[in-house]
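INTERNAL TRANSFER SHEET
From: sequence group
To: structure group
Subject: AAA+ ATPase domain-containing protein

Please process the attached sequence and return the structure record in the designated field. Keep the field labels unchanged so the import script can parse them.
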Amino acid sequence: MYVLGRGGTDPDGDGTEPDRDGTNTDRNAVSIPDRPPHTARIGSFLARDGSAGAAVGVDLDRPHAGVVFGKRGTGKSYTLGVLAEELADADGVVPVVVDPMGVFGGLEAAGDRVVDPAVRPASIPPSAWPDLLGLDPASGPGSLVWRVVADAVDAEGGAGSGTNDAAGGNLLSPSLAALREAVDAVDAPPETRRAAANHLRLAESWGVFDADAPPVASLATDGDPAVLDLAGVPDAAASAVVRAVARGLYDARIDGGLDRLPWLLVDEAHAFFGGVADPALRTLLTRGRAPGVSVVCATQRPAALPSVAVSQSDLLVSHRLTAARDVDRLAEAEATYLAGDLAARLPEGVGEALVVDDATETAHTVRIRERRTPHEGESPRASRLSDGESR
Ligand SMILES: Nc1ncnc2c1ncn2[C@@H]1O[C@H](COP(=O)(O)OP(=O)(O)OP(=O)(O)O)[C@@H](O)[C@H]1O
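Return from structure group:
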């Protein structure tokens, strides 16, 4: 098996490097384990004649940052699901899947649990609250919310914004109701208090904030791997969850509260950059590997991701892309082995991808394997509905 991200001149250990056409067969090779330890089997090389070559895996021994690109319907979510299945099976690692479209429920068949996300209000730093609520931090209501959250976190936890205890959980967190009461008690113009309280009430209605929510680390420690079902959750609330979870996993690894290496798999990742979740995702991309947190961002809009997402990724998987701006973002990998007409090198077929392996500075065409668990990302078809199916 050829293992992406593992490095060395002979990543599969069979005595040959893969041929450009992916027919990496060394007939003299002694037995090559089908799946070496700490490896995710994601597919096989795709030869020019369309036949399958050697198996291709992703290194799970060390932490990585990765991206999965592809225009709609080319197989991004499916590929992320394959990786999640492999992570759920492997020792020492655990996937946490951010599922904005509700398409990863099938992973329950791999033993994952689908959870309704709940995070503590204190897991969002006071300075981020105005933005989260759509308030200008310099405005009266914005600065009031900021101050009230900061005071409440100081009073209850005593250690500032969003800090974690050793188990990776936030220190005592105020409830949103308590924050509203605090807003009411402040000496400020009534219209300022009213606006601040109304925005906090709106955040309560999102249903993702819970002062007694389990610590974020429990997503990766308690029982089976977790799929965070964010389908139908408002964008701002989903961003708050991603911020809290990304930061919580990072802090838990730093504090020693997490003995497995978490992989945060983010589908529709473009939705989480440029907003409240942005700083936490950037932290994982740039510094996550040091404490052992991996992140993989999947999107049909690579151009909407910051450059850092590509420049920091040592694992790039790209299904078909056509828009020039999206191909340009991929080109920012600045890999000389990617030179030439990149768009033309991206395979056409669904489930086929160009994978770029930073560790060996090579790019290969791969066919992603079929899922073991059901994939729920299929678009509804009128023809199927008329055949009596429900989707
Ligand atoms: N590796 C694969 N093997 C077999 N079928 C696949 C593979 N990848 C994708 N498919 C098929 O293609 C369909 C679309 O894949 P997927 O839902 O992952 O697309 P997507 O790129 O995430 O699209 P969207 O942007 O709409 O979410 C899947 O429902 C599945 O039927």
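Handover comment: The pocket of adenosine-5'-triphosphate is lined by residues 70, 72-78, 300, 350-351, 368, 370, 375, 377-378 (CB under 6 Å). The longest strand covers residues 39-46.
Transfer complete.
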